[in-house]
Amino acid sequence: MENSESREGILAEVRKYAAESLAARPFIPGESSAPVSGKVLDGEDIATMVDACLDGWLTAGRFTTDFQRALARYVGVRSASFVNSGSSANLVALSALTSPKLGEKALKKGDEVVTVATGFPTTLNPILQNGLIPVFADVEIGTYDAVGEQLEAAIGPKTRAIMMAHTLGNPFDLDLVTRLCKEHNLLLVEDSCDALGSTYDGKKVGSFGDTATVSFYPAHHITTGEGGAVFSKSPLVTRQVESFRDWGRDCYCETGCDNTCGKRFEWQLGELPEGYDHKYIYSHIGYNLKATDMQAALGLSQLKKLDHFVARRKENFAHLSARFAGVEGLILPVATPKSDPAWFGFPITLADDLKVDREDLMRFLEVKKIGTRLIFAGNMLRQPAYRDIEHRVVSDLANSDKVMTRSFWIGTYPGLSTDMLDYMADSIIDFVSGKASL
Length: 438
Hints:
13 helices, 3-stranded antiparallel β-sheet, Aspartate Aminotransferase, domain 2
């Protein structure tokens, strides 16, 4: 048997095994879990990963190239650079904009970056790690995105960029944000880690920023295990993204390639001797944040199912919205105007006059094997890691404090069946109406 036939035989057996091992189990209320998120895999996903393993090319290779191109086409940007996590994507996306190679546009230490107080730490961390100063706006209850008037008020003489996330897949006001960026000559880093497939005014999120990011952690819209990507529209910016990802090197050869520039031994940069090997010239203080070809193979397979996953998230969100409609004491999520979210989750805020303790409700749901999560870090300035950071605020952040004490979210991911969704809704409704207790 020729090698190609052997390979196809192996992959056929893998598909068969995966179909059996990944088969859905019956949902039994109270015994089965109703998770808040999770991966949805099939036999083709597993077979594609094995296919990559059989190449024996363990770092970035043919699957990485194909995945990056397909991902960029899907979002509608020039380039997608695969990295090892969504958090790394955020770090690289902002760090790339500090490169001296961007000239006067480059962010410099001490510059201000507008963001929101409610979010995930790795949207904030790159601002601090690059010596920049965060300026915090509050969020709206219901959309959980920035209060527009506060974004405008946040911009001062030292403000040079905006970096925010589309909370739980709900796009922030991109008309306002892009207008502010244009009027004040600001850079935009668009954290789309929870929002792959969401659209604003018919255009995919991730395509608006100077850089943008997405995460492929198993909880997200598609998965590569660990993984993420940085989107960019400018070839100059893409070069800096890849440099920070790849040790900070000046060379832009793909893995396994040499002398793409045609003058590998003809460069003279910094105080290096003329002719120093370009593969070992470093223009940034960078990292190694690359991912593997097996991860890219899984991403490429998952990407083919993304439209289906997005549709299922929207259907699940609509089902929960209908179930909770009219339930007193629950503030339900609202899509921002002009947006069509691929909801990452279903956020709920308990009204002030509802005599229910959020932690009691979450403990009750945990006993019922229903997964819940907080809206990330709540008001991040209350977190111990950020108590002493240099920063500026433009309000009392009252809504961020409310999110910290009264909000949570449940799942919308494609692995949730209608029976699971109804069990989740029934359990929450019973508790808040006083029909159930711990």
